[in-house]
Design goal:
- This protein has 15 helices and 14 strands.
- The chain is an alpha/beta fold.
- It has two domains: 76-321, Type I PLP-dependent aspartate aminotransferase-like (Major domain) (Aspartate Aminotransferase, domain 2), CATH 3.40.640.10; 324-393, no CATH class.
- The chain has a seven-stranded mixed β-sheet with strand order 4-10-9-8-7-5-6, with helices on both faces. Strands 1-2-3-13 form a four-stranded mixed β-sheet. It has a three-stranded antiparallel β-sheet with strand order 11-12-14.
- A hairpin with a 4-residue loop joins strand 2 (49-52) and strand 3.
- Helix 4 (98-109) runs parallel beside helix 12 (306-321).
């Protein structure tokens, strides 16, 4: 990035006054490229294209804003609903009727449930369900698997051991500021791990309010795995809560649990449910959801109109277009590109994730450096990417062809360098950050 560019100047200012630069860990530039080598800021986003401050157009083959916009950025129908909500008053002393319409739509699609509450983001929704589970059962401990946000209840897992969250999603999370009295209230277990089911879940279940987990992310669960967990929770009066904030609206119109035929006690949606407009939904059994009236769960901005209006528009369009078919198809094609590019370059690659949430890893002695090089070189083709690609409805054959051509070229470069040189010497800056533990910023400089 040129030192005189608008992006460079803005980033240097941000580094001095905004700790971490971005409000989301996954959007900190150092998670992609360091030393100002990442575009960082955008002026416009539409479909799968993003324009930087210099008006350069990029193809987004990364996670599409952490997986929020499966219809593509700035979808015209969702935007229309959002603008109408703004023009008619986004918030008032009274409540939006869209709350009722959206709740009816969601309950119709989740016949096992009897109540809905709305919030505006995934992390706060997970904090709400933890409160509900503890209020309903009278117990405090939580068994969990997966990534569920930044709140105290979750980070408390790392009080006992700083490595407890390493195998969930993000290594190196420091529980600084989390009350030490929460130690031992949150117990991690590994997904699809039958030994943990026996030695962790069964061992602790009687004292736990809930088992909270993502029913799929890196892959689908093994046969009967979720059925066994549901059987155990039901037997011990413990709630089964599915976090489908990431997996929701990928494989079908709703959550993956519907395809797996496992009904939880509560399911949580966010991110995709309004195609990038802040919105989340907590759907649960009526007897459990009634506890929001016995404990205190309340926020003024959960009463605004834009979120539910946008969610209604999104769900209707998603169903009409059968978007899940396109997402599966695109994800399958992306995995195929990685596999074929690796084969031609004679690279050993591991590919994982359900098709709409695909990821890859090239086997190397220095994977972080290889990934940094991949991001760096793909950027030369105006492609924003990482080791994950979240499939999008707007990923068409033209863009996939561009991505394929670039992947083949960059994989060949990686293969050549791995055999005959030092990949660190080919980087334009330091190796990207792979987790939370080594992230720094210039805020205190």
């Amino acid at each position: 990035m040129k030192k005189k560019s608008q992006t460079y100047k803005l980033l240097k200012t941000a580094q001095k006054i905004i700790p971490g630069v971005a409000q989301l860990l996954g959007k900190r530039p150092d998670m992609y490229l360091k030393d100002n080598n990442w575009p960082t800021y955008y002026s416009k986003a539409k479909g799968i294209n993003i324009w930087g401050l210099d008006k350069k157009k990029y193809y987004d083959f990364s996670m599409m804003s952490a997986g929020t916009s499966v219809l593509g950025y700035a979808d015209k129908d969702v935007n229309k609903a959002s603008v109408k909500a703004i023009n008619t008053g986004s918030i008032s002393t009274l409540n939006p009727p869209e709350d009722v319409e959206l709740a009816k739509i969601l309950l119709k699609d989740h016949k096992w449930a009897g109540g809905v509450r709305f919030a505006r983001c995934g992390g706060e929704s997970m904090a709400i369900v933890v409160r509900l589970a503890r209020a309903y059962t009278g117990r405090e401990k939580i068994l969990f698997c997966g990534y569920h946000g930044w709140h105290d209840w979750y980070l408390a897992a790392n009080i006992k051991s700083k490595k407890n969250l390493d195998f969930q999603l993000l290594p190196g999370l420091e529980p600084l500021g989390v009350p030490k009295s929460l130690k031992d209230t949150i117990i991690p277990f590994r997904f699809n791990n039958w030994a943990d089911l026996k030695n962790v879940i069964k061992k602790n279940i009687k004292n736990c309010a809930a088992v909270i987990m993502e029913p799929c992310r890196e892959g689908l669960p093994e046969k009967n795995y979720l059925k066994e967990i549901k059987k155990i929770t039901k037997k011990n009066g413990c709630l089964l809560i599915f976090d489908e904030i990431t997996s929701g609206w990928r494989l079908n119109s709703g959550g993956a649990h519907k395809l797996l035929n496992i009904d939880p006690d509560i399911v949580v949606y966010g991110k995709t449910i309004a195609n990038g407009i802040p919105m989340s939904a907590i759907i649960g059994k009526k007897s459990i959801m009634s506890y929001v009236l016995k404990t205190f769960v309340s926020s003024v901005f959960w009463t605004e109109k834009i979120g539910p209006a946008s969610a209604i528009a999104f769900i209707k369009k998603y169903k009409k277009l059968k978007v899940q078919k396109k997402l599966k198809s695109v994800g399958f094609e992306v995995k195929k590109i990685w596999k074929e590019a690796a084969k031609e370059a004679n690279l050993d690659v591991e590919i994982s994730g359900i098709d709409p949430l695909a990821s890859f890893k090239i086997k190397s002695k220095n994977w972080p450096a290889v990934l940094t090089f991949f991001i760096q070189e793909m950027l030369k083709y105006n492609i924003l990417t990482t080791d994950k690609c979240y499939a999008n409805y707007k990923h068409d054959q033209k863009s996939l062809k561009i991505y394929r051509k670039a992947c083949f070229k960059v994989f060949k470069k990686i293969s050549y360098i791995e055999k005959s040189g030092n990949i660190l010497e080919k980087l334009n800056g330091p190796v990207k950050e792979m987790g939370f533990n080594r992230l720094t910023n210039h805020y205190n400089e």
